[in-house]
Design a protein that fits this description.
- By secondary structure, the protein is α/β, with parallel strands linked by helices.
- The chain has a domain of about 180 residues: HUPs (Rossmann fold, 3-Layer(aba) Sandwich), CATH 3.40.50.620.
- The protein is built from eight helices and six strands.
- The chain has a six-stranded mixed β-sheet.
- β1, α3 and β2 form a beta-alpha-beta unit.
- α2 crosses α3 and α3 packs across α8.
- The longest helix has 26 residues.
- The termini are far apart.
- The N terminus and C terminus are likely disordered.
- GO terms for molecular function: 4 iron, 4 sulfur cluster binding; adenylyl-sulfate reductase (thioredoxin) activity; metal ion binding; phosphoadenylyl-sulfate reductase (thioredoxin) activity.
- InterPro entries: APS_reductase, PAPS/APS_Rdtase, PAPS_reduct_dom, Rossmann-like_a/b/a_fold.
- Its main location: cytoplasm.
- Pathway: Sulfur metabolism; hydrogen sulfide biosynthesis; sulfite from sulfate.
Length: about 250
């Protein structure tokens, strides 16, 4: 007889294959669907195994509003790197009050002090890849291990590295379904939704900060630059490694 561990592994493998097939079909069927329709498919397919990643950026607050209207019980989480702007935390508090929603805080295993002891000061300047891996990628990996699908605010228009994002795709990094309901939306559509529905948003977005991450690695964007040009400025990096396109090229990252 198979032991429980082997049975659990087999069950997980069967679920992954089934989910991959569902994602393949949905990727075609929902390619031009509205964000609400994409979310509805995700919630209907995965239920409580579906979660939304929220950085409290403009796209994510739109998804919070949409998801709350669809199913207010779906869990929403955020990665707290201990380096977030005060405005980011304030936006979280405003959203929590507006929707009566608790946002799950996901943190790195190492505190900033412990990271400094192990890797030296200001690791983000010397080795941003390792810093992001410690403070973002690994915490996300741990959290997503309990889910079968996650949702992001990625839009194709945001940068060249995101230009191939689909509304529904298979995440090769985390081996699960990934939804990007706003993939085809323009920034004008995002702002229009925010204003029409009076969704709380980070005021930094009105101060030339279209993409907001950690304090040391976020700067204002200059006229004519893409929305992620202010992230890791001066480095050969525009993504943190949370998202990867099927071809292997980066296609996202909050």
């Amino acid at each position: 007889m198979l032991n429980r561990s082997k049975m659990a592994t087999m069950s997980t493998e069967v679920a992954e294959v089934s989910d991959q097939e569902a994602v393949k079909e949905a990727a075609q069927a929902l390619r031009r669907s509205s964000p609400q329709e994409v979310l509805q498919w995700g919630v209907g397919r995965f239920g409580n195994s579906f979660t939304l990643a929220c950085s409290f950026g403009l796209e994510d607050v739109v998804l919070v509003d949409m998801l709350f209207q669809l199913n207010p019980e779906i869990e929403i989480f955020y990665l707290d790197t201990d380096l977030l702007f005060a405005e980011t935390h304030q936006t979280r508090e405003r959203l929590s009050k507006r929707y009566g929603k608790h946002f799950i805080r996901v943190v790195p295993e190492l505190s900033l002090k412990e990271q400094e002891e192990d890797y030296g000061e200001t690791l983000w300047k010397r080795d941003p890849h390792t810093c992001c891996a410690i403070r973002k990628v690994e915490p996300l990996r741990r959290f997503l291990s309990d889910y079968r699908a996650w949702c992001t605010g990625i839009r194709r228009e945001q940068s060249p590295t995101r230009s191939q994002a689909e509304t529904v795709e298979w995440d090769e990094i985390f081996q699960m379904a990934k939804l990007n309901p706003l993939a085809h939306w323009t920034i004008e559509e995002v702002w229009d939704y925010v204003h029409k529905n009076r969704v709380p948003f980070n005021p930094m977005h009105e101060q030339m900060y279209p993409s907001i991450g950690c304090i040391p690695c976020t700067q204002q964007v200059r006229p004519g630059e893409d929305s992620r040009a202010g992230r890791w400025r001066g480095m050969s990096r525009t993504e943190c490694g949370l998202h990867q396109h099927q071809s292997g090229s980066l296609a996202g990252g909050k």
